[in-house]
């Protein structure tokens, strides 16, 4: 079994979906401490006139050490309308505006108060749209008994051991956290994914890499995106 473990990001970039596509099982790691100014409740899309800007889900007040699983969305509805307005400038130029906006609005229409639940719902919708299997569990609900965790890099190793994984898949940032020998000693393979960027024409805008999947969906069909993931999945051994 190929396993992936990540925090639940808000409409993340393509590399996140590449990891999901490469794995048989996905663990939503929602017990880690919520960190401000990360990707849990915000992401980046093109700005109407230059560069990019954030789309943000506002949160209720919480303690500084609260885990992601306890973070709640602010009760007002204005933020949903604000995000939809921020995306309207794509309408005249992006060929897949209608399809993408339908997906975004469906994701944001969820009445969930949990940022984890909202994000997982959005991830599921995008995966379904792209034709990617998304078999996930919330770590906070698994009651999984794992071995000792003495360093940040131990979490993935211990969870992988407990679930009987053969391979653990992680983005390039994990290269500094994980020792391949630790995984080999536990009878597993550590795979660091390097997805080549998918560059595309943004009519009237300057291309900005690694924006939210929303931007990618505006300019590319799901077939084009899935083909990019499939090609590079085969090249890296899926």
Describe what you observe in this structure.
It is a single chain. The chain has 238 residues and is of the alpha/beta class. It has one domain (2-235). The chain is built from eight helices and seven strands; from the N terminus they run βαβββαααβαβαβαα. It has helices at residues 14-22, 78-86, 97-108, 115-130, 154-163, 180-185, 213-219, 222-235; strands at 2-6, 25-28, 42-46, 52-56, 136-138, 167-170, 189-192. Helix 3 packs antiparallel against helix 4. The radius of gyration is 18 Å and the shape is globular. The relative contact order is 0.21. The mean pLDDT is 94.
What's the total number of strands? Answer: 7
Overall form: globular
Largest sheet: 5 strands, parallel
Rounded average pLDDT: 94
The number of helices is 8
Quick overview:
With 238 residues, the chain is an alpha/beta fold. The protein has helices at residues 14-22, 78-86, 97-108, 115-130, 154-163, 180-185, 213-219, 222-235; strands spanning 2-6, 25-28, 42-46, 52-56, 136-138, 167-170, 189-192. The chain has one domain (2-235).
Highlighted features:
7 strands, two-stranded antiparallel sheet, 238 residues, 8 helices, globular, 35% helix, alpha/beta, 5-stranded parallel sheet
Can you lay out the helices and strands and say which pair or pack?
Elements: E1 2-6, H1 14-22, E2 25-28, E3 42-46, E4 52-56, H2 78-86, H3 97-108, H4 115-130, E5 136-138, H5 154-163, E6 167-170, H6 180-185, E7 189-192, H7 213-219, H8 222-235
Parallel strand pairs: 1-2, 1-6, 2-5, 6-7
Antiparallel strand pairs: 3-4
């Amino acid at each position: 079994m190929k396993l992936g473990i990540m925090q639940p990001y808000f409409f993340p970039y393509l590399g996140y979906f590449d990891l999901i596509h490469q794995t048989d099982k996905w663990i939503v790691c929602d017990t880690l401490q919520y960190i401000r100014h990360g990707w849990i409740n915000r992401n980046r899309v093109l700005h109407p006139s230059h560069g990019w800007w954030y789309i943000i889900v506002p949160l209720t007040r919480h303690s500084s050490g609260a885990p992601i699983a306890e973070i709640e969305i602010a009760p007002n509805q204005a933020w949903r309308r604000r995000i939809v307005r921020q995306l309207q400038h794509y309408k005249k130029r992006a060929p897949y505006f209608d399809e993408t906006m339908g997906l975004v609005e469906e994701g944001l229409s969820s009445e969930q108060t949990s940022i984890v639940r909202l994000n997982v719902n959005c991830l599921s919708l995008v995966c379904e749209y792209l034709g990617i299997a998304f078999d996930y569990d919330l770590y906070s609900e698994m009651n999984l008994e794992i071995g000792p965790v003495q360093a940040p890099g131990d979490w993935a190793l211990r969870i992988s051991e407990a679930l009987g994984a053969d391979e653990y898949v992680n983005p390039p940032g994990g290269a500094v956290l994980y020792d391949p020998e630790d995984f080999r000693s536990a009878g597993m393979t550590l795979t660091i994914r390097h997805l080549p960027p998918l560059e595309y024409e943004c009519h009237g805008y300057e291309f900005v890499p690694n924006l939210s999947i929303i931007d990618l969906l505006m300019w590319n069909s799901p077939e084009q995106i899935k083909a990019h993931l499939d090609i590079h999945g085969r090249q890296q051994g899926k």
